[in-house]
Amino acid sequence: MRDDAKDTEGERIPPHPPREILRLPAFAFFWSATTLRAFGGAIAGVAFQILIVTVVNATPVQISVLSTLSVAPYLVLGFLVGALMDR
Q: Is the whole model's pTM more than 0.85, yes or no?
């Protein structure tokens, strides 16, 4: 936070140490849940690729098609929902 930060009334906001926010139970829970979700997603992505290779004996082209299809709904729905939200 900048030293010259001011609140809505124009009063100076004192700087807070960065670690102080981790003392808030709600933020600590949110941060740890988000971190675990990110690690879980990364591990699941790698595990998905390994399972495709070992169980299905897929070729590199098949693996790339499956990986593309796993991302395609986010791309399509992202554009549609984005257009609806901009209305």
A: no
